[in-house]
Design brief:
The complex is a heterodimer of chains A (311) and B (398). Chain A has nine helices and eight strands. Chain A is α/β, with parallel strands linked by helices and 311 residues long. Chain A has two domains: 175 residues, Nitrogenase molybdenum iron protein domain (Rossmann fold, 3-Layer(aba) Sandwich), CATH 3.40.50.1980; 127 residues, 3-Layer(aba) Sandwich (Rossmann fold), CATH 3.40.50.1980. The longest helix of chain A has 27 residues. Chain A starts with 28 loop residues before the first strand and ends with a helix. Chain B has a single domain, classed as YVTN repeat-like/Quinoprotein amine dehydrogenase (Methylamine Dehydrogenase, Chain H, 7 Propeller). Helix content of chain B is 4%, strand content 50%. Chain B is built from two helices and 35 strands. In chain B, the strands form nine sheets. A five-stranded mixed sheet of chain B has the order 1-34-33-32-31, with no helix packed on it. Chains A and B meet through α2 and α3 of A and β8 of B. Chain A: Its main location: other. Chain A: This is Zinc/manganese transport system substrate-binding protein. Chain A: InterPro entries: AdhesinB, AztC-like, Bact_metal-bind_prot9, Lipoprotein_PsaA-like, ZnuA-like. Chain A: Belongs to the bacterial solute-binding protein 9 family.
């Protein structure tokens, strides 16, 4: 079982250079969000005072994203860059270097109590192609709505530091949005409570739901590790298949950002039907069921509950 | 100037001492593999000392390619009808919070691939496709199997010998389609075949196909009117044409893929290169050079930079974000692009913090500090040092 361990002292703030306060900005604050979930938070806090660019869009996988020269140009013009941190964005350091941005690069997991990645998913891939690893902390803190509140507060603080004139607006927006997060959090807890405790083990593609597990009391197993970049070993897959056959897992799910092949293989070998798609590290497109963070959390628990209770 | 085969200089002794004292911690190692323009040999040079480690005999003068992992170097001998494989002797293990570096002597492996007129080497995540023009045939293998000395070889055939290329992408192989009416001319498209050898879908038109590169999850193939771009990842690969659009008349025939930033750098006419950002609305940015282009490559460490050597003897640094040449450096006497395309001319490789440029007519490797873009030492190499590949990096040594 995953243990929650405080590692706040180990957290690294990648860059904290300040562009300085924009006290009377007629121009909207130029904000870059590293991926779609953070982009949604930023939109809710910044409203029409910000000009937002999201690097990794809907259904995109930030673990393996390759930034382009155009991204570097966007970054170089930004006032504020919002990132997850905990080494979630493997591309971040080289993009910051290439862009020579003078913006504040703000890690939104600052203040979150990080949890360790699950055992048994150490990286074994050959290096040499790209410098890329995720340390031993699980970066998917946004999968707990309590943590999302911390992200939102950090965004409001960052916007206030960069645009003092708009600070009251940012704080008011954050307050309104946090109330919506609280309501969604309560909804998820009610939904989980309806699932029998002996049916609360499910399988997904990669270890993206550790914080969800800790916050809401479900157990997630995955053949891939913290990053989608790490391939599952044959032994990992065999162990999962064995667990499903032993009726220890109630449902299995695809993820919107990962290759469905492994999950389909597990489904095929165990006869357990795939219960649907969970949104792990990215929102859906605008016409999908998880176009906002709150919709994503509600959709995920509805999908899980439906698959388990229907099985 | 450093001379190969010379006694170990005092500086190297000092460097060696410093390295040894820090052996249990961080270690940086780079090796340069250098082929000769006229002789069937490959030198391995330790870039930390400038000393030659070994020289390997192959069958014919060779082009060199390194695998993505850097564990192997392929010597493609078009006139020797063989591809030889060297172990670089440097490998890395990724342990999440740190990487380990392992070092052993480079060696010529007891693995080679025989076939008529080998031309192109393409590595995609350890799946290696070797194309043999004289047979119109691809041999697909895996680096891991080669290193174990037991390469399983899968052959993909085409309808005629031709100057082609193949790319192994998971369950599929992209292979060039010969021009059956004029087999001596460039291929006319790309065909996708599955593991059984059966075609998947129809022919993807790509007249005058020449030039391939990958950057991140994108693979690009250069055609007469644009690039075929393939995005790999979930599901079957999709192929789309990215037309040259507003560029002046011309085409790319050589591509290099960006590392760290996702882009391609291609030739375009004799005196320009083109930066290609397939995800941008402004996908093509043409960069004019002062004289004709000799060679170009990307910097795998400093993602913002690429380098071009021109026939006036200058090395140019390209800022790929700004889309312009931001520094130039005179390194050699002029190398005219008149004459045969394969005459001995400089080639570029990046070895960590050093850019290396071969100067075959002087028997010298010029090195340039990649951070300051200023010349540093020269390494003399017997013969005509020509093709270069660099392998290395940093890690914890145990």
């Amino acid at each position: 079982m995953l243990r929650t361990i405080g590692f706040a002292s180990l957290m690294s703030v990648i860059t904290l250079t300040s562009l300085g306060t924009t006290s009377a900005s007629a121009e909207p604050l130029k904000v870059v969000a590293s991926f779609s979930i953070i982009g949604d938070f930023a939109r809710n806090v910044g409203g029409d005072r910000i000009e937002l660019t999201t690097l990794v869009g809907p259904d995109g996988d930030a673990h393996v994203y390759e930034p382009s020269p155009a991204d570097a140009v966007t970054m170089s013009k930004a006032n504020v860059v919002l990132v997850n941190g905990l080494q979630f964005e493997g591309f971040l350091q080289r993009l910051v270097e290439a862009s020579a941005t003078k913006a504040s690069v703000v890690e939104l997991t600052k203040g979150v109590l990080p949890i360790k990645m699950k055992q048994g998913h150490e990286h074994t891939a050959e290096a040499g192609s790209d410098d890329h690893n995720h340390g031993d902390l699980d970066p998917h803190a946004f999968q707990s709505i309590a943590n999302a509140r911390i992200y939102v507060k950090n965004i409001a603080d960052a916007f206030c530091a960069a645009d003092a004139t708009g600070c009251d607006s940012y704080k008011a927006n954050a307050e309104v949005y946090t109330a919506k997060l609280d309501a969604a959090d309560a909804e998820v807890k009610v939904a989980v409570a309806a699932i029998p405790e002996d049916k609360r083990i499910v399988i997904t593609s990669h270890d993206a739901f550790g914080y969800f597990e800790n916050a809401y009391g479900l157990t997630f197993l995955a053949p891939e590790g913290i990053s989608t970049e790490a391939e599952a070993s044959a032994a990992d897959v065999a162990a999962l298949i064995s667990q499903v056959r032993g009726d220890k897992a109630s449902a299995i799910f695809l993820e919107n950002i990962t290759n469905p092949r492994l999950i389909e293989q597990i489904s095929s070998e165990t006869g357990v039907k795939v219960g649907g798609t969970l949104y792990s590290d990215a929102l859906s497109k605008a016409d999908g069921p998880a176009a906002t963070y709150i919709d994503m959390m509600k959709t995920n628990i509805a999908t899980i509950k439906g698959a388990i209770l229907g099985s | 100037m450093k001379h190969l085969l010379a006694s170990t200089p005092a500086l190297a002794v000092l460097l060696g001492f410093a390295t040894a004292s820090a052996f249990a911690e961080e270690q940086t190692a780079w090796r340069l593999f250098v082929s000769d323009h006229a002789q069937p040999i490959v030198h391995a040079i330790d870039m930390e000392t400038g000393q030659k480690i070994d020289t390997f005999n192959v069958r014919a003068p060779t082009s060199l390619y390194r695998s993505a992992s850097g564990r192997t170097v392929f010597a493609v001998q078009g006139k020797g009808d063989v591809i030889s494989v060297l172990s670089s002797g440097i490998s890395f293990g990724d342990h999440g919070d740190h990487g380990d570096i392992s070092m052993e002597a480079p060696k010529l492996l007891d693995v080679s691939f025989e076939g008529k007129k080998p031309s192109h080497f393409v590595d995609h995540e350890g799946d290696i496709a070797l194309f043999f023009d004289g047979e119109g045939k691809t041999r697909v293998t895996r680096e891991a199997d080669i290193l174990e000395g037991k390469p399983a070889i899968r052959e993909v055939t085409t309808d005629a010998p031709h100057h082609g290329v193949a790319i192994a992408l998971g369950d599929h192989v992209f292979v060039s389609e010969p021009n059956l009416e004029k087999p001596d001319e460039l291929p006319i498209g790309i065909r996708v075949v599955d593991r059984s050898g059966a075609s998947v879908g129809g022919l993807h038109d790509c007249p005058d196909l020449h030039g391939e590169a990958s950057s991140g999850n994108l693979v690009a193939v250069a055609c007469a009117k644009g690039l075929l771009i393939t995005s790999t990842g979930t599901g079957a690969p999709a192929i789309n044409l990215l037309p040259y659009a507003d560029l002046p008349e011309g085409k790319s025939t050589t591509l290099v893929g960006g590392r760290g930033l996702q882009y391609f750098l291609g030739n375009y006419g004799p005196s320009a290169v083109v930066l290609i950002d397939p995800k941008s609305d402004d996908a093509f940015r043409l960069i004019e050079l002062p004289t004709r282009r000799v060679h170009f490559t990307v910097d795998p460490v400093r993602a913002k930079f690429a380098y071009v050597f021109t026939e006036d003897g200058q090395l140019h640094r390209i800022d790929v974000v700004a889309g312009k040449v931001d520094a130039s450096l005179k390194l050699t006497e002029p190398y005219s692009m008149d004459g045969h395309w394969s005459d001995p001319r400089p080639r570029i490789a990046v070895a960590g913090d050093r850019i290396v440029v071969s100067d075959p007519l002087k028997g010298v490797l010029h090195t340039v500090d990649a951070t300051t873009f200023t010349p540093t030492e020269e390494i003399s190499v017997e013969g005509k040092p020509f093709n270069l590949v660099a392998v290395g990096g940093s890690g914890e040594a145990h």
